[in-house]
Amino acid sequence: MDRRNRRSAPGLAVAAALLLSACHSGGRVVLPVAFEDPAPAATLRYPEDFVSHEATVRGVAAILSRQLGLPVPDHVTVYIYSSRAVFEQGLVSDGRLPAVRAAELSEFAIGVGKRRQLLLQDDGGRPATRDWLRLVAHELTHVAQIELAQGEGRAEQWLAEGMAEWAAFSVLERLGLDALGERRAAALEHVREQAALRDARLDLDTLGTPRGFTVRHQREGSLATYQLAFLMTDYLIRRHGFERLLEYYRGFAGGRGRREGFRLAFDQTLEEFEAEMLAHLGRVLR
Fold it and tell me: Fewer beta carbons within 10 angstroms: which end of the chain, N or C?
């Protein structure tokens, strides 16, 4: 899930060829996407290889797959909605979300990644913009997470969102549009005054569920909450490597619970990680 007020496998066939039979109806565009043999991700250039929505999905999928090892499924359906109201309706009719949840999400989100689906709101902007590339990368990462876990909502929500942000920034860095180091520094500034840090309690139990994550950023601010999720995920990746996150998600396919999955993947409990993360943030934010 990517939010409105941002200023978010080796050996697999990994690039996309979008079918030409896109469907248009009432502010809704449907793009069936089939993934076929790609051009190497290293050959992609910005902006010339990202001139359409189709090309953007193709290019982002190639980078995520070839450079981060994320498993892109063999097909994805991309829904593009022209307004918030049409997006909300699409979350119900296409994404099969309850109406109450769809209304809640459409108030702050501009994208949702579900199993083999991307549901995106587009206000008519150019497909090669930095923000659109980031949105597609963020939501495609959620699609890949679901492929790895063989189901939705099994992992810690803060880690799902933080990983999607980290992967999206990595795509932008690969294209020369951003840098992970700069995102890390900016995130530290945004979380500096967050209430959770002042209270010395990150409350990962709340941040770990989709509903709790939503409530938290409605209360404390979307940007600060996503930035905190990014920083915690970045910390895990710098310590264990990105591949460990893929192993974490694969573990859920075998039936692991949330707490057990985290402990087995990262060699510590959520409580131990929270204490370690608080200490780390306390040092770097001095």
Answer: C
Q: Would you give the DSSP letter of residue 74? A: S
SS3 55: helix
How many residues does this entry show for the chain?
286
CA distance 198 to 200: 5
CB neighbour list of residue 92: distance below 8 Å, 6 or more residues apart: 98, 99, 102
pLDDT in tens, 14-35: 333 333 345 566 799 999 877 7
Q: With a cut of 90, say whether residue 90 has pLDDT above it.
A: yes
Query: What's the CA gap between 276 and 270, in Å, rounded?
Result: 10
Query: What is the β-pairing status of strands 75-81 and 23-25?
Result: unpaired
Rounded Cα distance between 202 and 197, Å, is 7
Count CB neighbours of 48 within 10 A: 9
What are the C-alpha distances in Å from 187 to residues 102, 145, 193, 229, 260?
Answer: 28, 23, 11, 10, 29
Token pair 């939503």: residue = 214
pLDDT digits (tens, 9 = 90+) for 21-77: 455 667 999 998 777 765 566 788 999 989 888 889 888 999 999 999 999 888 899
Residue 142 binned pLDDT confidence (cut-offs 50, 70, 90): very high
pTM higher than the cut 0.85:
yes
| Residues in a beta bridge with 78 | 31, 118
Task: Copy the structure tokens of residue 136.
Answer: 């597609």
Domain residue extents for the chain: 2-284
Omega before residue 47 within 30° of 0, cis: yes
